[in-house]
Design brief:
The protein has 137 residues and is mostly helical. It has one domain. The chain contains three helices and two strands, in the order αααββ. Strands 1-2 form a two-stranded antiparallel sheet. The longest helix is centred in the last third of the chain and has 47 residues. The protein is elongated and about 80 Å long. This is FlgN protein. It comes from Geothermobacter hydrogeniphilus. Keywords: Coiled coil.
Length: 137
């Protein structure tokens, strides 16, 4: 395989990785609303692994391009890469928006729970445990 073909193959591999990442992010966008925080955390770890692999492939391709001195890459693959990166960028923006909304809801729930516990703390038991409660201020 000559250098140009090798670089084209690397670029195609990078694009395949970005395609996997875009698909994963789009699925995550559809599922994020119903998922609990621990599930979301695990999904984000999977996304980080996909991103790390994409970065590794990009670094390898960049090094190979620099070593070879090739100045023109296959236009079709470059255009596909550009479209995938735009798709990933849009998914990322939407994910951040959804996650920020979810965090806001969770923060509100935590605050309500904190206030509820504080209110319950003002009640104290007298006599047998759990039989009579008096509100104290």
């Amino acid at each position: 395989m000559n250098t140009t073909d090798e670089i084209a193959a690397l670029l195609a591999t990078c694009n395949a990785q970005y395609l996997s990442m875009a698909g994963f992010m789009e699925t995550l966008l559809e599922e994020i609303t119903g998922n609990r925080p621990l599930v979301i955390r695990e999904k984000l770890k999977e996304l980080e692994a996909l991103q790390a692999e994409a970065a590794r492939l990009d670094t390898r391709m960049k090094q190979r391009v620099e070593e070879s001195g090739i100045s023109v890459l296959p236009q079709k693959l470059v255009e596909q890469r550009r479209e995938l990166l735009n798709r990933i960028g849009e998914c990322n923006r939407l994910l951040v928006d959804k996650l920020e909304g979810k965090m806001s809801v969770m923060a509100d729930e935590l605050e309500r729970n904190r206030r509820g516990r504080s209110a319950l703390g003002k009640y104290k038991s007298t006599g047998r445990k759990g039989t009579t409660f008096h509100y104290t201020t």
